[in-house]
C-alpha cells in the first residue's frame, strides 16, 4: 500500500520529552529507571509510570487543543504487532494514558507486520524498508497516531497512509520523546521539497515510485533531507539497494 501525500496544514508531532541528554539533571526517556522494564521487558505498567513522570502539560494541552479544533472525538492508534503482544509497550502505554485522561478510544484492530526491526536501524534502512500494517479502520473516524520515539517519522508516515487508504483520517501525531524533546516536523516541508526538486530534476517522482513505491512528495521531512544529502541518482540508488539487502 503506497503512501499518500501530506496536506499543507498537517501539524508538527507533539513531543513531551527528550530521548537522551548529556545533562544528568534533565529527565529523559532513555535514562528513566523504568525504561528497561518498559522497553526490554514489555511492561505496560512501567510504561504508563514513565509517561506519568515525563509528560508535559504544554505538549498535552497543545495536542488536545488541536484535536478539539478538528472537531469530534478521535481514536488513538499506536504501532503494535500481534493481538495481545506488548512489543511496543511504551507506545501502547502512551495510547492508554491518553485514553484514560481524555476519554479517547484506542484502536485495537490494526497491527504492524514485523518484517525489519526498526529500533536500531539507521536512516537508510528505515527509508528502504517500509512498514506494513493489517486490520480494519473505522471509516470516517479521526485518528491520532502515537509512538514512543520519533526518529525519521517513516513508521508514522506509513501508518498514516494505511489509515487514509482504509477510509480514516489522521489529524495528529504525538510521541513520548524525540532526540531534542522539541515538536517534530513530519510533513515534508515546502522548502525541503523545493530543494529536492531543484537538485534532482523532474525524474525524482518516477525514480521514487520505482525504487520505494511512492512519490517524493510522500517523504517525511527527515527522509527528504537524507535523500538531498546524496550526490545524485546513482548514489541514492546504491544507498537504497544496500539498505534493502542488509
Please explain how this structure is put together.
The protein is an alpha/beta fold and 246 residues long. It has two domains: 14-178, Rossmann fold (3-Layer(aba) Sandwich), CATH 3.40.50; 190-245, no CATH class. 42% of the residues lie in helices and 15% in strands. It is built from ten helices and seven strands. It has a five-stranded parallel sheet. Strands 4-5 form a two-stranded antiparallel ribbon. Strand 2, helix 4 (89-102) and strand 3 (105-106) form a beta-alpha-beta unit. The model has no long low-confidence stretch (mean pLDDT 93).
Break the fold down into its secondary structure elements and pairings.
Layout (H helix, E strand, L loop, with lengths): L13 E5 L16 H6 L3 H11 L2 H14 L4 E3 L11 H14 L2 E2 L3 E4 L9 H6 L3 E4 L6 E9 L3 H12 L3 E10 L11 H11 L3 H9 L8 H8 L4 H13 L1
Parallel strand pairs: 1-7, 2-3, 2-6, 6-7
Antiparallel strand pairs: 4-5
Task: Give a quick summary of the entry.
The model has no long low-confidence stretch (mean pLDDT 93).
Question: What key phrases describe this protein's structure?
Answer:
246 residues; alpha/beta; 5-stranded parallel sheet; 10 helices; Rossmann fold
What class do helices, strands and sheet pairing give?
alpha/beta
CATH class wording of the largest domain: Alpha Beta
Mean pLDDT: 93
Task: Tell me the CATH architecture of the largest domain.
Answer: 3-Layer(aba) Sandwich
- Shape by Cα distribution: globular
How many angstroms separate the termini?
Answer: 22 Å
Overall number of strands: 7
Strand order across the largest sheet? 1-7-6-2-3
Amino acid at each position: 500500500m503506497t503512501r499518500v501525500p501530506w496536506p499543507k496544514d498537517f501539524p508538527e508531532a507533539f513531543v513531551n520529552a527528550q530521548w537522551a541528554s548529556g545533562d544528568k539533571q534533565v529527565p529523559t526517556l532513555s535514562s528513566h529507571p523504568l525504561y528497561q522494564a518498559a522497553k526490554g521487558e514489555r511492561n505496560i505498567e512501567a510504561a504508563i509510570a514513565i509517561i506519568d513522570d515525563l509528560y508535559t502539560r504544554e505538549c498535552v494541552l497543545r495536542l488536545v487543543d488541536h484535536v478539539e479544533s478538528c472537531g469530534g472525538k478521535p481514536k488513538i492508534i499506536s504501532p503494535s504487532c500481534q493481538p495481545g503482544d506488548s512489543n511496543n509497550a511504551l507506545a501502547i502505554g502512551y495510547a492508554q494514558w491518553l485514553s484514560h485522561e481524555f476519554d479517547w478510544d484506542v484502536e485495537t484492530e490494526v497491527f504492524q507486520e514485523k518484517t525489519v526491526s526498526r529500533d536500531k536501524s539507521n536512516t537508510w534502512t528505515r527509508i528502504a524498508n517500509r512498514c506494513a500494517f493489517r486490520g480494519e479502520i473505522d471509516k470516517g473516524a479521526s485518528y491520532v497516531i502515537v509512538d514512543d520515539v520519533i526518529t525519521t517519522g517513516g513508521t508514522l508516515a506509513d501508518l498514516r497512509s494505511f489509515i487514509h487508504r482504509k477510509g480514516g483520517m489522521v489529524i495528529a501525531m504525538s510521541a513520548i520523546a524525540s532526540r531534542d524533546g522539541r515538536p517534530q516536523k513530519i510533513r515534508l516541508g515546502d522548502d525541503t521539497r523545493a530543494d529536492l526538486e531543484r537538485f534532482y530534476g523532474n525524474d525524482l517522482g518516477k525514480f521514487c515510485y520505482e525504487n520505494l513505491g511512492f512519490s517524493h512528495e510522500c517523504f517525511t521531512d527527515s527522509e527528504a533531507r537524507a535523500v538531498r544529502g546524496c550526490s545524485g541518482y546513482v548514489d541514492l540508488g546504491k544507498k537504497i539497494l544496500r539498505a534493502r539487502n542488509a
